[in-house]
Structures are given as structure tokens and as C-alpha cells.
Automatic annotation (TrEMBL):
All copies of domain DUF6534, residue ranges: 147-232
Keywords: Membrane, Transmembrane, Transmembrane helix
Top-level taxonomic group: Eukaryota
Amino acid composition bias (Basic and acidic residues), ranges on this chain: 250-262
Name of this protein: DUF6534 domain-containing protein
Length: 325
């Protein structure tokens, strides 16, 4: 096999440039998280800190790999991917408590990490460029399992969100946004891993797949941070309105939409509306005498509270207990 600088060193150089740009985005996302979500559970903070620290080591390893066959970037990339995927699987578990699918997803994550570590170990044992075909099998397992895991997590979350049926505009808007975010989450890492796999299988004599793989850890970390930064604790929408009729006087309607998708509240979506309805008696209609508050002067009234629950509560535990250690 001839040594071509264009296909051996060129992709690695371009990969480090893309790596630097993505790492800048990652740092900005991390700064935003630490600045705006200081109240988050220590477990989320530990997850973010660990992912950023490992990804920083991975970035340095990428630069070193331009000059030496340094397998450290495979170890670190596999670890960062596992952390980001575990974050999303944990989110799915808190929403559904589906043990079978949750364990299946964690099994996929374990296999992917094993493939990444096996690939790195193979490169460490056989560092010569001409021996790179020895890493074909573990690398293929790593990339295929990574793609399957990302797509499976996205589909699982997507199906849960799509189960919610609502006639309220605010609820539909929130759910549509969560669906879009879930699709973006699943397609980010899966797309990069799929490109690496296809290029690697088509031509494993070049370093093009390696240069593309340099970006994989950054994409996973940015995806996780974007999910955490998208939450807005305590964000509520409310609406009020009144109406009246011959037999029904709606004295007030109050509704709210609670959104919880992160931190200590990252366990459910709760949507409910409550309407206070005043039903007039026939005596009140015939009298036709009303005070300023809508009640008749001396006739009894029948009050009924109508509660319409247009809700999806994906967790049986209280929100403040979802992430308790």
C-alpha cells in the first residue's frame, strides 16, 4: 500500500480544524449551563463536568494523532458518547419507567463502548499504518452499535411524546418542540457515526473516516449540553377568559401548562386546565337580577368545578424526587 500524504495527513488536519470549531461551541454551551442552571442536581453537574473533562482530553489526543498513531482519542470518544447516550436513556427511564427497553438501550451503549475500546486496543497493539485493517471488525461493531443506539433512543422518546393528544394550542406547541429536539438529538451523533462507518468500509486505506471521527465526541457533548440548556424551569403559560349565556355563566377559566424537561424537574410533562363554572337555576333566570359579581340577589346558586385534565404524567414520583441520589 502506497503512502499518500493527501489521504493520510490531509483528512487529519481538516479534522482538527473542525474539532477546534466544535469545541468552541461546546465551551460556550458549558458556560451557559453553569451560569444559568446553578440549582441543578449535583448528579447532572457531575455528568457535565466529567463529559467536558474527558472531551477536552479527547481533543488534545486528536491533535496528537496527526503525528502519532495515538489511540487515546478512541477511548475518550467512546466514553463521551456513552455519557451522552446514558443521559438520554436516563431521561427516557424517568419518563416511562420501561425497564425492558431501558436495559436494552444500556446494553447497546455497553456494546458500543466495548467496540471503541477494542478498536483503541487494536491500534495500540498494531500501531503500524499498514496494519489498520486489523481494527475493521471492532470499529465496525462500535460504529454500527452507536448508530443503532442513537436512533433507538430518539425513536423511543419520539413515540412517548407522540402519545400525548391535546386540544390545547400551548400543549401542542410544547410537544412539537420536544419532538423536533428529540429528532435533532438522535440524528446528530448517528449521522456522524454513519458517515465514518460508510467511508471506513468503502476505503479503509485513507484517514478520511478518522478525520470525521474526530468530531464525534464534540457532537455528542454539544447534544447533551443543548438538551440541558433547553429547559426552562418554572416556565408556565396561563390563559383566562369569561363567557355567559342563558343557562350557563362561565365565571372564570384558568389554565396552565407546566413544562419540566431538565434538572430536578426532568421527569415529566404535566398539562392541566381547570374551569370554574356557575350554573344558574331556573329561578335565577326568571328573576334576571344580578349583582356585579354575576350572582342573583337572593337566589341560591349551584357552583360546579369542571376540571379537564389534558395531561401526560410520565413519572409517578414527585418532580423534586426524580433525581434524588
Amino acid at each position: 500500500m502506497s503512502f499518500n500524504l493527501d489521504i493520510v495527513l490531509g483528512p487529519l488536519l481538516v479534522g482538527t480544524w473542525a474539532n477546534s470549531a466544535l469545541y468552541t461551541v461546546e465551551v460556550i454551551q458549558a458556560a451557559y449551563y453553569y451560569r444559568h442552571f446553578k440549582q441543578d442536581n449535583w448528579m447532572w453537574k457531575l455528568l457535565v463536568s466529567s463529559a467536558i473533562a474527558i472531551d477536552s482530553v479527547s481533543m488534545i489526543a486528536n491533535y496528537a494523532s496527526v503525528y502519532l498513531p495515538y489511540p487515546l482519542y478512541m477511548f475518550t470518544t467512546g466514553t463521551v458518547a456513552a455519557l451522552a447516550q446514558s443521559f438520554l436513556v436516563t431521561r427516557y427511564w424517568l419518563l416511562t419507567r420501561n425497564k425492558v427497553l431501558t436495559l436494552t438501550l444500556f446494553f447497546f451503549i455497553t456494546v458500543a463502548v466495548g467496540g471503541a475500546f477494542a478498536s483503541a486496543a487494536t491500534i495500540a497493539i498494531f500501531p503500524v499504518y499498514q496494519d489498520r485493517e486489523k481494527a475493521v471488525v471492532p470499529a465496525t461493531i462500535w460504529l454500527i452499535t452507536g448508530v443503532v443506539t442513537d436512533v433507538s433512543i430518539a425513536l423511543a422518546l419520539l413515540l412517548e411524546f407522540r402519545k400525548v393528544k391535546s386540544s390545547f394550542k400551548e400543549t401542542r406547541s410544547l410537544l412539537n418542540r420536544l419532538v423536533a429536539q428529540t429528532i435533532q438529538t438522535g440524528t446528530g451523533g448517528a449521522t456522524i457515526a454513519l458517515v465514518v462507518l460508510v467511508v471506513f468500509l468503502v476505503n479503509n486505506d485513507s484517514n478520511v473516516p478518522t478525520g470525521v471521527a474526530y468530531c464525534l465526541g464534540r457532537v455528542y457533548c454539544i447534544t447533551m449540553l443543548a438538551n440541558l440548556n433547553s429547559k426552562k424551569a418554572g416556565n408556565t403559560w396561563s390563559s383566562k377568559g369569561t363567557s355567559s349565556g342563558a343557562n350557563l355563566d362561565t365565571r372564570g377559566e384558568r389554565g396552565n401548562l407546566e413544562r419540566s424537561e431538565g434538572g430536578d424537574e426532568y421527569g415529566g410533562i404535566h398539562v392541566h386546565r381547570t374551569a370554574m363554572v356557575h350554573i344558574e337555576t331556573p329561578q335565577e333566570i326568571s328573576r334576571g337580577s344580578f349583582k356585579t359579581n354575576g350572582r342573583p340577589d337572593d337566589s341560591p346558586a349551584v357552583e360546579m368545578e369542571m376540571t379537564v385534565n389534558d395531561s401526560a404524567s410520565y413519572s409517578s414520583r414527585k418532580k423534586q424526587d426524580l433525581f434524588a441520589p
